[in-house]
Amino acid sequence: MKRGSRWVLALGILALGALPLSASAQLRTVKVAATSKDVLDNLPLFVGVRMGFFEEAGMKLDISYFRGGGEVVRAITTRAVEIGATPAASAVLIAFGRGEPIRIISGSGAPMAGVVWIVTADSPIKSIKDLKGKKVGFSSPGSLTHTVIQSVLRREGMEKDVELVRVGSPGDSWAAVKNKIVDSGWYVSPSVYALIMKKEARIVIDVSQYIHEYQQTVVVGMEETIKRDPDMLRGFLRARAKAVRFLYDHPEKTIAIWADELQLPVEASRLAYHDLPKGYFETGAPKMTNLQGAMREVLDSGAIKKPLDLTQVVDASLIPR
């Protein structure tokens, strides 16, 4: 090869090396914990991933789904993940009350919505009163389902009349109901609409009818992550906020994404979408009245012994302006 040709080849190789890496190669993988995939609070994650909003923020989400809010929080406090995207506010407050340096960096979903207790369609149980002396399933200790079912039973004067049984995820809960391990188990929107449409199940408790001012889910990070990696957290919140705007501006596209992600009939997702409380998905700091509602339920359940200073739990400094 002639000297001139070798120089041309060398320059060509150098030029190729100087080209920017592909967008995918530059993405940072961010480990995220979320409650059971079926819960409605995960919808902004689905939309943000499908529409590329998190990639635009320079990140690829590695999402792990857990059976209940308590398990999500354990993944966060053990540093197995960097962000808690949809943990129950109740579980976060319990962890904070026990001394964990965990912080709420944004609201996620409020007020109470999409959490129900169901029975098989042929069950003789017609209402909550019929659960006296029965077994009722919740997800995991310290979870939203654990604290709210205790609250509902107290309001009905039935807290000593029902045996509470840990059953895990919504899918595990439905299996426990069908196999008569429990008489009624927790379930969630939008999947519950599919069961109702197939005439397999009925709702006997809709928690939203009992609890109104309540912070259902939040976005959280450990104090050390907030100090060490604020830009990553800001990028996550910015992408999530974009997903929330999109899901309200483009209902049919959102409904299709939801149905596909959970492998549900589109009509089930459509019913769930139109049943959402107005402004349910949050992009800013949670309302203190809703956090106080969640704290009351946690106090009443005995999971924490005294009220928390909620201003110390919330760090709103990373929320996009």
Brief overview, please?
The chain is an alpha/beta fold.
- The H-and-E topology, N to C, reads as HHEHHEHEHEEEHEHEHEEHHHHHH
Query: How would you classify the helix and strand content by structural class?
Result: alpha/beta
Strand-residue proportion: 15-25%
Q: What overall geometry do the principal axes of the alpha carbons give?
A: globular
Q: Tell me the distance between the termini.
A: 60 Å
Mean pLDDT over all positions: 92
| CATH architecture name of the largest domain | 3-Layer(aba) Sandwich
CATH class of the largest domain: Alpha Beta
Biggest sheet descriptor: 5 strands, mixed
Low-confidence stretches: 1-24
Strand order of the main beta sheet, please? 7-6-8-5-9
List the helices and strands and how they pair.
Elements: H1 3-18, H2 23-26, E1 28-35, H3 43-50, H4 53-56, E2 59-66, H5 69-77, E3 83-84, H6 89-97, E4 102-109, E5 115-120, E6 135-138, H7 144-155, E7 163-166, H8 170-178, E8 184-188, H9 191-197, E9 201-206, E10 217-222, H10 223-228, H11 230-249, H12 251-262, H13 266-274, H14 288-301, H15 310-313
Parallel strand pairs: 1-2, 1-3, 6-7, 6-8
Antiparallel strand pairs: 4-10, 5-8, 5-9
Helix pairs in contact: 3-11, 3-12, 5-6, 6-14, 7-14, 9-13, 11-12, 12-13
Description:
It contains 15 helices and 10 strands. The chain is of the alpha/beta class and 321 residues long. It has 2 domains: 187 residues, D-Maltodextrin-Binding Protein, domain 2, CATH 3.40.190.10; 95 residues, D-Maltodextrin-Binding Protein, domain 2. It has a 5-stranded mixed beta sheet, with helices on both faces. Strands 2-1-3 form a 3-stranded parallel beta sheet. Helix 7 links the parallel strand 6 and strand 7. Helix 3 packs across helix 12, helix 5 packs across helix 6 and helix 9 packs across helix 13. The N terminus is likely disordered.
